[in-house]
Design goal:
alpha/beta, Rossmann fold, binds adenosine monophosphate, GMP Synthetase, Chain A, domain 3, binds methylmalonyl-coenzyme A, about 500 residues
């Protein structure tokens, strides 16, 4: 099944229904029906075809949330072109790796970002592309994709710190959407406030796909801003909100009467991408009158596990396996462990990616007999609720964005005078965790100079919030750094 068949119930079946609203460059609200989205993406598809893009080619985008990302996604799905989203916060080094690995035909971006791209990468200005497409025919021209045809390469890192492109197929996105629609009972009468970035799975595979597959209404905002969130909730009156824990922490600042009113009009608040602290869940319930529904997923697998819409949303757990998804907790020898015993989560289902782009070894290492090893450690209760307890790797999650310490450690040790480096997550009440760097270095090492250089090379959320000089890194007999023994500190 091509994803387009899933979208057609909305694009064609609900053609004259309101579909989407978002702010235009001048601040005025743009309102579109599904028929408008169909025509806009057909026109863009013509332009992509005229520029030589064919099924299986890659096209990247590096954009904040805007309607053109939706046009681009739909046009690519229609043509079988594989979309490569790039985090807008990434700097040249991070972008260069993705471009070299995925070799996209072009990157759709804004002119102000041109300096961040390596030479040799073809850049298409989003406004120019949109303007040119407007004069092209608006009738549909689509190729037939299959469930196993790749729809997107989404970059995510393993313990190595080298980002790999998870190959997500039409079938993966369709299965995820159908599973969430069923589990969370999303219907055409829902109103979804989309504040998550569309370059990640949470905003794209969950947000955009629940919208398109259900035919509900979506308000797309450029990015989440705590100071404007109340206004969006009060004006748009969403029934549905998906967020990362940092967003819910920020929403706790909403005055209590307004929080109650927002809660009264909203049907469902979902949290994921990072652990939701039980205290936030409780405070949110007091203020908004809603128990946030927490779920768990990964870029490679889309959504695996969710607390129920109806039934007990158990605090501290991520709930039970979603429809069509099998979850097993296993020991190091791939044997399933008993309930209440700790192990690694393995998953299998139509939601799981087909592997990593052009990385056979990494793909082979990730799968055993069709099961994918998530690297997440947890336990399952006798009634199937899963509690996550950590990760096999030392991944840091800050504001819902992933940080791989190894990437930063390698940069740090490239500075003259820095002999050894370890980066560890420090608890943070708003972002969940923030990175802190521990350095074995010369007395003359200039942390400010290191910071300046790192800001040029790393997305801002990856830049350490503090630098700590240590005499030595605590290591095991085998030389592995024991990060839990690093001195904790105030940031
Ligand atoms: C944050 N910043 C951004 C954006 N978001 N810059 C550009 N575009 C964005 N979308 C930058 C800010 O400029 C600032 O940079 C810093 O991040 C913090 O921003 P601030 O306004 O203080 O925001 P906040 O209140 O701390 O909230 C941050 C946030 C953001 C909005 C919650 O972290 C966010 O959008 N997180 C979502 C991540 C996400 O979608 N993860 C899903 C991954 P500076 O530091 O320079 O001041 S997919 C996944 O994990 C799996 C599959 C799953 O289960 O979902
Ligand atoms: P990513 O590689 O960006 O797809 O991040 C996926 C990782 O985010 C998972 O492997 C988990 O470690 C983490 N994650 C996602 N949802 C949750 C959640 N609800 N609670 C704790 N961790 C989560």
């Amino acid at each position: 099944m091509s994803l387009l068949e899933l979208y057609d119930a909305s694009l064609l079946g609900r053609a004259n229904q309101p579909a989407l609203e978002c702010a235009k460059a001048d601040g005025a609200l743009l309102s579109l029906q599904f028929a408008d989205l169909e025509t806009r993406s057909n026109r863009l598809g013509r332009l992509l075809t005229d520029r030589g893009l064919r099924s299986g080619d890659r096209l990247a985008f590096c954009l904040s949330n805007r309607v053109e990302v939706i046009d681009l996604w739909l046009a690519c799905v229609k043509l079988g072109v594989i979309v490569v989203p790039i985090n807008v916060m990434y700097k040249t080094r991070e972008i260069s790796h993705i471009c070299a690995d995925a070799s996209p035909r072009a990157v759709v971006t804004t002119t102000d970002r041109a300096g961040d791209f390596p030479s040799g990468v073809e850049l298409w200005d989003v406004d120019t592309v949109t303007a040119l497409a407007q004069s092209l025919p608006g009738d549909r021209c689509a190729v037939q994709s299959r469930a196993d045809s790749p729809a997107a390469l989404i970059y995510t890192s393993g313990t190595t710190g080298v980002a790999k492109g998870a190959i997500l197929t039409h079938g993966n996105f369709a299965a995820n959407a159908l599973s969430l629609l069923t589990a969370w009972q999303i219907t055409p009468s829902d109103r979804y406030l989309a504040a998550l970035p569309l370059f990640h799975v949470h905003g794209l595979a969950n947000g955009v796909h629940c919208w398109l597959a259900s035919g509900c209404h979506m308000r797309l905002v450029e990015r989440f801003e705590a100071s404007r969130a109340v206004q969006w909730f009060e004006e748009y009156r969403p029934t549905l909100f998906f967020g990362v824990p940092t967003m819910y922490v920020r929403l706790l600042e909403v005055p209590v009467e307004r929080a109650r009113a927002i809660g009264a009009q909203t049907r469902l608040f979902v949290s994921g991408s990072a652990p939701l602290p039980a205290s936030v869940l409780e405070q949110f319930a007091d203020a908004f009158g809603h128990t946030i529904l927490e779920r768990y997923g990964m870029t490679e697998t889309l959504m695996n596990v969710s607390n129920p819409l109806i039934g007990e949303r158990r605090p501290g757990t991520v709930g039970r396996a979603l429809p069509m998804v099998s979850v097993e907790i296993r020991d190091a020898h791939h044997r399933a462990v008993a309930t209440d015993c700790v192990g690694e989560l393995w998953v299998r289902g139509p939601n799981v990616c087909s592997g990593y782009w052009q990385r056979e070894e990494a793909t082979a290492a990730a799968f055993v007999d069709g099961w994918f090893g998530t690297g997440d450690i947890g336990v399952m209760s006798p009634d199937g609720y899963i509690t996550l307890q950590g990760r096999r790797s030392d991944l840091i999650i800050s504001g819902g964005f992933n940080i791989y310490p190894r990437e930063i450690e390698e940069l740090l040790t490239s500075f003259a005078g820095v002999h050894e480096a370890a980066v560890a997550g420090q608890p943070d009440p708003v972002r969940g965790e923030v990175p802190v760097a521990y350095l074995v270095c010369e007395a003359t090492t200039d942390f400010a100079a290191i910071e300046t250089q790192l800001r040029q090379e790393l997305a801002s959320f990856k830049v350490p919030r503090a630098y700590v000089r240590v005499d030595a890194l605590p290591r095991t007999a085998l030389g592995k750094v024991q990060k839990h023994l690093l001195p904790s500190r105030e940031t």
